[in-house]
Amino acid sequence: MFILSNIRVAVVGVGSCASSLVQLVTMAKEEVVGDTLKGVMYEQIGSYNANNIDFVCAFDVDQRKVGFDLADAIFAEPNVAKKHTEVPKQNVLVEAGPLLDGVEEKLAEIIELSSQINEVDTKYVSERLKEVQADVLICYLPTGSYEAVRAYATASVEAKVAFINATPEPVATDSYFQAKFHEYGVPLLGDDLRSHLGATTLHTALIELFQSRGITVDDTYQLNFGGNSDFLNLSSPNRSASKQKSKRNALHAAGIDASNVSAGPNGYVQYLGDSKVCYLRLEGSSVLGSPISLELRLQVEDSPNSAGVVINAIRIAKVAKDHGLSGVIDDVCPMLFKSPRYGATESEALKLLSSFVERYSKVKIPR
Ligand SMILES: NC(=O)c1ccc[n+]([C@@H]2O[C@H](COP(=O)([O-])OP(=O)(O)OC[C@H]3O[C@@H](n4cnc5c(N)ncnc54)[C@H](O)[C@@H]3O)[C@@H](O)[C@H]2O)c1
Asked: What is the pLDDT of residues 234-267, one digit of tens each?
């Protein structure tokens, strides 16, 4: 009988999001079996709990991370994700990956490039993924790394490793990759990870609430500020174009014309560290054309907020692989990503995701 083993995960970009993910998996492993972790929506997906995840390889370009155990690299500068738990050695040394356009503009001021990046290419990454028998690759490259994201997506599909694109660079929304992942029989999830309860989720849920009462949304904004390296990178207009587009896609899928809506990263405020602050306003017309407006301020820890979504995406990618699904896994993407191939409203997205989880949790493969 085919018995499942743990999910073998490769990480590309050992930044703040990766730090929170590794910490979350560590905490899951320390939990008494059966206890639900706070903020984790599904205890089990398919036959996988959150503690059934093992990290098997990792790539970065910063010399403070390359050559170090993943457990240490996640706490190296310039990462600012908070340490919520001690992380035991993972026995995974972070390796140098191909640089391409990974580090440009403001990031070049804070990332110290490893000399080893000149010795590797996409083919090397693909060979390593095969060697370590990775099941899933999670791509946490900086926004704007168009070429680098494509290179790792190519390495992943050629090694037959499921790909999760946390970045807003187009992979799941790119027809070339849609066809390639389908042809190679490999699952693809993306693009641009949503946060567990972040600005986009709150914004789209509020738009749906207004619309469910027949109230039109006439004007709205979503202003975001933060102090991690993602926000520093996004403070360069050339690097933030894909993020702005992705946020507008999410609002468009929620049912409003977002072409002129200001929704994006609006500033780097260093002292905020990994805290993200969002100011959100909606103005609408209600009964008899009476005006209604709503303003709120959301503050979250940015990186753990992404880990709450990735912990589902990883298990879904593996379940899809176990069941021979290939190409973009459309049912789950609207809930997990801001820029899916097919957008949906907040409640439709949740329904689609939940029914996928329910469907594949009924057909359990023994562990
Ligand atoms: N924080 C969130 O909640 C959130 C939500 C949605 C999407 N995202 C996206 O996730 C991505 C990662 O975010 P983060 O906060 O971890 O960023 P980060 O800047 O902390 O980490 C990026 C890492 O990538 C490394 N890197 C750069 N070029 C590389 C290359 N060519 N090969 C390998 N590694 C390379 C950097 O050295 C750094 O360690 C970003 O694209 C961000 O927009 C984050």
From this structure: 999 989 888 888 888 889 888 888 888 888 899 9
- Architecture in CATH of 199-301: 2-Layer Sandwich (3.30)
Q: Is this model's pTM higher than 0.85 or not? A: yes
Residue nearest to atom 3 of ligand 1 (CA): 306
pLDDT classification of 366: cutoffs 50, 70, 90: low
The 3-class secondary structure across the chain, one letter per residue, is CCCCCCEEEEEECCCHHHHHHHHHHHHHHHCCCCCCCCCCCCCEECCEECCCEEEEEEEECECCCCCCEHHHHCCCCCCCCCCCCCCCCCCCECEECCCCCCCCHHHHHCCCECHHHHHCCHHHHHHHHHHCCCCEEEECCCCCCHHHHHHHHHHHHHCCCEEEECCCCCCCCCHHHHHHHHHHCCEEECCCECCCCCHHHHHHHHHHHHHHCCCEEEEEEEEEEECCHHHHHHCCHHHHHHHHHHHHHHHHHCCCCCCCCEEEEEEECHHHCCEEEEEEEEEEECHHHCEEEEEEEEEEEHHHHHHHHHHHHHHHHHHHHHCCCCEECCCCHHHHECCCCCCCCHHHHHHHHHHHHHHHHHCCCCC
**Separation of CA 102 and ligand 1 centre (Å):** 9
Q: Give start-end residues of each CATH 3.30.360.10 domain in the chain.
A: 199-301
Pocket test for ligand 1, best of 11, 14, 17, 80 (most atoms within 8 A of CB): 17
CA of residue 194 to ligand 1 center, whole Å: 14
Residues with CB under 6 A from ligand 1: 12-18, 59-62, 79, 97-100, 102-103, 111, 140-143, 145, 148, 166-167, 192-193, 195, 228-230, 302-303, 305-306
pLDDT confidence band for 365 (50 / 70 / 90): low
